[in-house]
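Worked example 3 (structure in, sequence out).
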């Protein structure tokens, strides 16, 4: 008999395998559960029963390791009813080892049960999978992790704050084992009560104080203070990658707060701080800072000059987020565009505006808007119909596609015929946003919403409204020669 347990790390596969091993052998089972008190249960629990064999395929993955199993299975169990083999991380077995075991796994003797556990079922031969009774283990919810940890704390007399428990559950990412080991680590400290700060310190999360301080400095354009924070973080021996990741997460929370006025993970003082910071910057500024720091995150990941790159990146963030002139400039461009759209003034020759000129040439905007209000903006024949882009972006938000929403929030679209939809990034297209939009599941989400809103499939082009055509590489120039005429850089993602 083959039983197959599939699930992420720390979701309870091995624990369940051991319970199963006792349940099938228990002398006094109660409703299918092992009694944990009979001779057999006790011996399995303390690991002395030779009929239950546990093997970690991650460290014993060779042919010799499985040969003993292959030879043993023919013998009857010494004491228990069944010989039970628990093979953990079974996908780690070498191909040769798998082959050596295949026959046994395919037709195990009556008195043998195999329990295979893995995090990666796709690596297991289908001949084996098809013979298994399969059980899938899901990630454990934060709520249930908290519940379980509370019980452990009560039993072991550990005092801990709710906030700390909550934080541990978040850090565990659905793996109970991780939650328990963080708790264990914390309980070794000599404190009356475990608080969230202790958890952060032991896990190596830089304190929120540093994170909020550097965020504030960035939005105030205070480079000196920002650099001081970096120094303190380095002096505390914290990892800069982690720190940056936490800062990005924090700024994202600032954005969420600015948009919704709500946040759940922070306490009252922390929320007060976030509110203050959120008032320092516009939504655009906050978004741009997130993009900039995400790019920085990718850059420093592979760099041996982390500190210097980090410092330079933060200085850049400090200065770009304070150029209010840029904001004003953009507003002016937007104004101009609106005027152009309404057909009030003649067209000039900057790239972004040329976009508009094209639209102008195709059809007068005013008439279009009038029709698009009256009916859904789908028109398969003319190719001039207007997509209600603001509505689509809003749909992304309401359907919880937050990353797509934030990436596309300030974009415009330009329809080319009735097949191609250009998404224009007036502030430039960062590598971060590009990779996000090229991610297949995001692409699918966007396409799905477009289909449901417009009734058809669009080929999407991402257009950097800032760079103009001077970044087109020579080898691409031929293919893009007609695009060059538009004065914009076009990248086709589909
Ligand atoms: Zn028992």
């Amino acid at each position: 008999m083959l039983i197959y347990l599939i699930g992420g790390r720390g979701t309870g596969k091995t624990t369940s395998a051991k319970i199963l091993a006792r349940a099938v052998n228990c002398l006094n089972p109660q409703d299918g559960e092992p009694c944990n008190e009979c001779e057999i249960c006790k011996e399995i629990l303390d690991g002395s029963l030779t009929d239950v064999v546990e093997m970690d395929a991650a460290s014993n993955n060779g042919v010799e390791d499985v040969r003993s199993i292959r030879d043993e299975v023919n013998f009857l169990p010494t004491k228990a009813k069944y010989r039970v083999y628990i093979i953990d991380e079974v996908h780690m077995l070498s191909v040769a080892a798998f082959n050596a075991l295949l026959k046994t796994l395919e037709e195990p003797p009556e008195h043998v049960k195999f329990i295979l556990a893995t995090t990666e079922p796709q690596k297991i031969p289908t001949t084996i999978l098809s013979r298994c009774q399969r059980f899938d283990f899901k990630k454990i919810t934060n709520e249930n992790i908290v519940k379980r940890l509370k019980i452990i704390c009560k039993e072991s007399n550990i005092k801990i704050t709710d906030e700390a428990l909550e934080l541990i559950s978040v850090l565990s990412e659905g793996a109970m084992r991780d939650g328990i080991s963080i708790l264990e680590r914390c309980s070794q400290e000599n404190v009356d009560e475990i608080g969230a700060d202790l958890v952060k310190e032991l896990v190596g999360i830089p304190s929120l104080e540093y994170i909020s301080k550097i965020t504030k400095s960035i939005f105030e354009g205070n480079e000196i203070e920002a650099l001081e924070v970096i120094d303190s973080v380095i002096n505390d021996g914290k990892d800069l990658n982690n720190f940056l990741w936490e800062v990005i997460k924090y700024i994202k929370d600032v954005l969420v707060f600015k948009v919704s006025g709500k946040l759940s993970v922070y306490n009252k003082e922390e929320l007060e701080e976030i509110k203050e910071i959120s008032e320092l910057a516009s939504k655009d500024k906050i978004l741009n800072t997130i993009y900039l720091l995400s790019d920085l995150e990718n850059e420093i990941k592979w760099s041996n000059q982390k500190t210097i790159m980090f410092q330079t990146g933060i200085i850049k963030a400090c200065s770009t987020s304070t150029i209010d002139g840029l904001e004003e400039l953009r507003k002016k461009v937007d104004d101009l565009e609106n005027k152009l759209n309404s057909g009030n003034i003649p067209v000039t020759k900057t790239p972004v505006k040329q976009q508009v000129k094209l639209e102008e040439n195709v059809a007068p905007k005013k008439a279009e808007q009038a029709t698009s209000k009256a009916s859904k903006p789908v028109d398969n024949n003319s190719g001039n119909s207007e997509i209600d882009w603001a509505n689509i972006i809003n749909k992304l938000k309401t359907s919880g596609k937050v990353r797509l929403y934030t990436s596309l929030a300030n974009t415009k679209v330009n329809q080319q015929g009735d097949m191609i939809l250009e998404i224009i990034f007036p502030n430039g297209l960062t590598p971060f946003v590009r990779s996000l939009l090229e991610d297949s599941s995001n692409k699918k989400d966007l396409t799905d919403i477009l289909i449901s809103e417009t009734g058809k499939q669009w080929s999407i082009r991402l257009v950097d409204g800032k760079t103009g055509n001077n970044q087109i590489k020579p080898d691409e120039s031929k293919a893009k020669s007609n695009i060059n005429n538009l004065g914009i850089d076009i990248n086709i993602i589909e």
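Notes: Confidence is low (pLDDT under 50) at residues 345-384, 469-494. The longest helix spans residues 240-260.
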